Automatic annotation (TrEMBL):
Pfam families, alphabetized: TetR_C_6 (PF13977), TetR_N (PF00440)
PANTHER family attached to this UniProt entry: HTH-TYPE TRANSCRIPTIONAL REGULATOR BETI (PTHR30055:SF234), HTH-TYPE TRANSCRIPTIONAL REGULATOR RUTR (PTHR30055)
Name under which the protein is recorded: AcrR family transcriptional regulator
Molecular function GO labels: DNA-binding transcription factor activity; transcription cis-regulatory region binding
DNA-binding positions: 31-50
Domain HTH tetR-type: 8-68
Source species: Lipingzhangella halophila
Tagged with keyword Transcription: yes
Superkingdom of source: Bacteria
Keywords: DNA-binding, Repressor, Transcription, Transcription regulation
Keyword Cell cycle: no
InterPro entries linked: BetI_C (IPR039538), Homeodomain-like_sf (IPR009057), HTH-type_TetR-like_transc_reg (IPR050109), HTH_TetR (IPR001647), Tet_transcr_reg_TetR-rel_C_sf (IPR036271)
C-alpha cells in the first residue's frame, strides 16, 4: 500500500508540475525537461511514470478534469435546485487564481482533442458526464415544480455547459472586459432566464 501511495503521489506531483509548466510556457513549448525542472526531479524519473510527452499530457488533462469533478462533488445539494445549479456551474468558472491557472491550461489542451484520439475520448466522456449531471439537475427542478416540464433538460444542459465554456474563454483572453464579477453575473442571468421560461417557446 505505501508503495502504491508513493507512486500515486509522485504522479500527482508530476501532473501539477506539468500544469505549472504549461501555464508558464504554453503547451507547444513545454518539454519533459521543463516538467522535470518544475517537479524538482530528473527527466528519467518523469519518464518512469510517463513513457512519452503524449502520455504525460493525457494524464495532465485527466488530472484537470478530476479536480473539476472533485469541486462539483463538494457542492451541497440543498434545494432549491436553481441555487444548486448556481453553485455547481460557478465551480467551473475561473473565479480564483487556482481555477484561472487550471482553465488557462485547459484551453491549451482543448486543441489537442482534434488530433489525439485518446485526448478526444477523455474530453468527450468528461463533457458527457457534466451535461448528464446538469440535465439531471434540471429534470429534478421540473419534478419539484421549479421549472416548466416543457423545457428540454438535456438541450438546456448542453447550452449551459457551452455558455460556461464561452465565459471561461473570454475571461482568460480578455479579463479586463469579462472580469470575475461580470462572468458570475452573466451565469446567474443565464440560469434565471432558463427558470423564467414556460417551455413553450
Amino acid at each position: 500500500m505505501p508503495r502504491t501511495a508513493d507512486h500515486d503521489e509522485r504522479r500527482r506531483q508530476v501532473a501539477e508540475a506539468l500544469l505549472r509548466a504549461v501555464a508558464a510556457r504554453g503547451l507547444a513549448r513545454t518539454t519533459l525537461i521543463d516538467v522535470a525542472d518544475e517537479a524538482g526531479t530528473s527527466v528519467g524519473l518523469v519518464q518512469r511514470y510517463f513513457r512519452s510527452k503524449s502520455d504525460l499530457l493525457r494524464f495532465g488533462v485527466e488530472y484537470l478534469y478530476e479536480r473539476a469533478e472533485e469541486r462539483i462533488a463538494e457542492v451541497e445539494l440543498v434545494p432549491p435546485v436553481r441555487s444548486v445549479l448556481y453553485r455547481v456551474t460557478e465551480t467551473l468558472l475561473p473565479l480564483d487564481d487556482e481555477r484561472r491557472t487550471e482553465l488557462a491550461v485547459w484551453l491549451e489542451f482543448v486543441p489537442a482533442t482534434l488530433t489525439d484520439p485518446e485526448m478526444s475520448r477523455i474530453h468527450r466522456d468528461t463533457t458527457r458526464r457534466l451535461v448528464d449531471g446538469i440535465a439531471g439537475g434540471i429534470t429534478s427542478a421540473q419534478k419539484h415544480g421549479e421549472l416548466s416540464t416543457g423545457v428540454d433538460a438535456r438541450a438546456e444542459a448542453a447550452a449551459l455547459v457551452a455558455f460556461v465554456d464561452g465565459l471561461t474563454m473570454h475571461h482568460i483572453a480578455t479579463a479586463e472586459i469579462f472580469d470575475t464579477g461580470m462572468i458570475r453575473d452573466a451565469l446567474h442571468r443565464f440560469i434565471d432566464q432558463l427558470f423564467a421560461r414556460d417551455g413553450r417557446s
